[in-house]
Specification:
There is one protein chain. The protein is built from five helices and no strands. The protein has one domain (4-88). The chain has helices spanning 4-20, 28-33, 38-42, 47-66, 68-87. It is 67% helix and 0% strand.
Length: 102
């Protein structure tokens, strides 16, 4: 699964390439998946403005990469909970939380 953060970074990388090398890239995929506004996508930006956006997206991506272990752990925990509940629905309490014996 590719996160919007990665798509945002890919978008600005391709947008910079299209300005630097005058190449046409299909950026629409990244506009949608990277949650980029149509206004920003359609705006005429200088090369320096695109570089600034790319730097910001790189910083955001690095922050998410630092949280990778925590995010992965919580994902795996919720996946395990879902598997247990799927296999044995009686373990659910009336308020739909899982009974745990830790």
């Amino acid at each position: 699964m590719v996160t919007p953060t990665i798509q945002l970074h890919r978008y600005w990388t391709l947008r910079l390439k299209s300005v630097k090398y005058n190449q046409a890239h299909s950026l629409e995929k990244y506009v949608h998946e990277g949650h980029i506004s149509e206004t920003l996508h359609n705006a005429t930006l200088s090369q320096q403005e695109i570089i600034n956006h790319l730097k910001q997206s790189t910083l955001i991506l690095q922050e998410w990469q630092c949280l990778h272990h925590t995010l992965r752990e919580s994902y795996l925990k919720s996946l395990a909970d879902a598997t247990v509940v799927h296999n044995n629905p009686s373990l659910l309490q009336p308020d739909l939380t899982l009974k745990r014996s830790e």
